[in-house]
Amino acid sequence: MARDKQMAAIKAALEEQPHRKTPVELPDVPTLPIVEDTKEEKAAKKEADKSAREQLKEQEQTRLQAARITKESQEQGEEQSSRLAQTLQTLSGQVGNLWKGTQVQLENIPTPGSLLLPFVILMVFFFLLLPVNGHTRFIWLWLVFTGQAEISATSGGRGQEAPPSQPSAGELPPSNVIQPQLGIFGTYASEVV
Amino acid sequence: MTGAVTWIATWLIMITFLVIIAQTSWGRSVVYWLMWLAVALLLVTHSDELTSIFNVQALNLNG
Question: How many angstroms separate the CA atoms of B34 and A119, rounded?
Answer without folding.
Answer: 10
